[in-house]
Amino acid sequence: MPEDRQSPAPVVTRFAPSPTGYLHIGGARTALFNWLFARGRGGKFLLRIEDTDRARHSEAAVEAIIDGLKWLGLDWDGAPVSQYAQRERHVEIAEALLDQGKAYRCYLKPEELAVARDKAKADNVRFESPWREADPESAPKDAPHTFRFKAPREGETVIEDAIQGRVAFPNSALDDLIILRSDGGPTYNLAVVVDDHDMGVTHVIRGDDHLNNAARQQQIYAALGWPAPVFAHVPLIHGSDGAKLSKRHGALGVEAYRDQGYLPEGLANYLLRLGWAHGDEEIIPFTRAKEVFGLEGVNKAPARLDLDKLNHVNSHYVGTLTDETFASLAAPFVEAAGTELDDENRARFARAAASLKTRCATLSDAVEAAQFLFLQRPLTIEGKAAKPLKKEGARAMIADLAAALSDVSDWGAPAALDDALKAFAEAKNVGFGAVGQPARAALTAGRPSSGLGEVLYALGKTESLARLADQAG
What we know:
- By secondary structure, this protein is α/β, with parallel strands linked by helices.
- 44% of the residues lie in helices and 11% in strands.
- It has 18 helices and 14 strands.
- The strands form six sheets. It has a three-stranded parallel beta sheet, with helices on one face. Strands 4-5-8 form a three-stranded antiparallel beta sheet. A two-stranded antiparallel sheet has the order 6-7.
- Helix 2 links the parallel strand 2 and strand 3.
- The longest helix has 15 residues.
- It is elongated and about 105 Å long.
- The N and C termini lie far apart (68 Å).
């Protein structure tokens, strides 16, 4: 058990997405890590919507994020917090920093700012506004201005990251960031610090693209005299080619994986193992994950998305579904592919569920796996009548098999039908292949299918005998 579970302090984590689109798979993994870390320690997991960018804000995106989290099985404590709704509090803290001399009003016009930044870059020095040390009384009256944080000039800012280790930033590289825009709106780094402090967040677990932000945020914490949370920056997910994950690597949003037929348990298990390990364990359901998840198991290198591994993990969870649940969840995919599930087809699909789920990595795989169930008689292959085999005697063999199976009273289980097939082959004094090959062609027209006993059971006695009769000589 990781040592950090022994800490008496209550753990509070948060997931803070920006509502500008779907729940990205990388964001879903971040949420999962935060959720497991908190839930495994009896702590709280909070949800904050970072919606200060009103131009890009989308309520539909908020709903997509919430729906994605719910689908994955990640619950949160309390109501989701809107960062935009806390803006008065952010302004209050910005003004407090100003009053304490830890921030200043900057009256640089956009064109002046551009010139000053270019000069600093040319001189290879940190950009610094001339208003940092200017007499406030010299400021133009009622002129537009921003609030800038007065960042330390000397020394370094150190982040003791729970994943990355000690990361030092020279303060000469961190200029005086704007904390309040000229329109009075707070900026990201100030809002995050205030919100995390007010929400009691103890651990900030997020992507390592925020590592530079952590340095700036730690400076703000220090200026306010607030304790900083534990920072833990998780390497981002890359594509299988090692490049940063993008649309060309496939589905990016959680809902896309759902619509492709992945189970939430399968996707969550895969995301857990994407950049985190606990020995050689691959299949780790939530109950187990909450017991063993810790930041010490997170890799420092970027993880690579591997759809083959995702399919392998998901197939495990598909296999654990009850037959009834599998049929219920997979049926919409079959119908969406154009098959009408009337009462008879639905009954066949339900009977086939036990064998189908062992051949499906995703629910959508049921479309092809179950195709043989819904063929129209007489069966055809690419528009031509399906013939069991051209081998001499194959049709006669099918006719004799149909007669033998019509006398079988127990069609209630695949095993009984397998026994009947074996008994027929023995009575004919032939190898099972001589029976099985033409029978499978007659029953499935070459479509992928399970064992013959399972095929007969799924189709039912009436349909099975009718398909055999169609092909009998």
